[in-house]
Here is the input.
Amino acid sequence: MEPIILMEHLHKSYGNKQVLKDINLKIYPGQVIGYIGPNGAGKSTTVKILCGLLSGFEGNVTVKGIDLRQDPLGVKRIVGYVPELADLYEVLTPVEFLELIAGLHELDPAIASERIVKMLTAFGLEQNMLQRMDTFSKGMRQKVLLISGLLHDPDILILDEPLSGLDANSVIIVKELISQLAAQGKTIFYCSHMMDVVEKVCDRIILINQGTIVADGSFEMLQESLGKGSLENIFAQLTAEVSLQGVASSLVSAFQKNRDDE
Here is the structure.
């Protein structure tokens, strides 16, 4: 099977700061990839390059056989991206916003309209379709964002903290959605700090730290090579430069003297 995403010797710098250092990855259709790392590790930079939003990198990136550097628009046609934070043009209704997204992807208006109504209804927003989004909660806006990333039926779905603001039932829906999309051969590139969710929904976990890949495999493989325990513990083992318990103790001790004086 040919990889749907291929990164070869990927480097990216901002001025004198090297953010990505020789990233090499082969990702295959149907995989649910958990791409995790501490703040500043290079996750967002990788995602922006993969979405065709960031140029000036070294190395090669191909997506479904398309050279990203030569045809970034071609890559955008087959990638759905759900960022953690995005502008939704809140003076629009969900229908208006999603019709705009459909137009940018050159979807047939009749097909787009049917999908928009079905997906908004599935997410419980049927009563809010014609309501301006400046009145929406964070969770409602997140649902519209998820639909915008799925609307053009992409081969690759890139999710950056997709569960942010969602209630418990919606979280279950998104988890099941990820599973069913992967079963259809879609590739999911999932970025999150929620280790328990990554542990459960991803069949392959890639851990990046200081611009390099420090672990790559299933959760079971990581446990076998790095010791038993949760993904959270493995994450801390590979990325923490200081004792996290010690940091917590220092924070608590900041209040202790005042308490003792009372």
Notes: The chain has a mean pLDDT of 89.
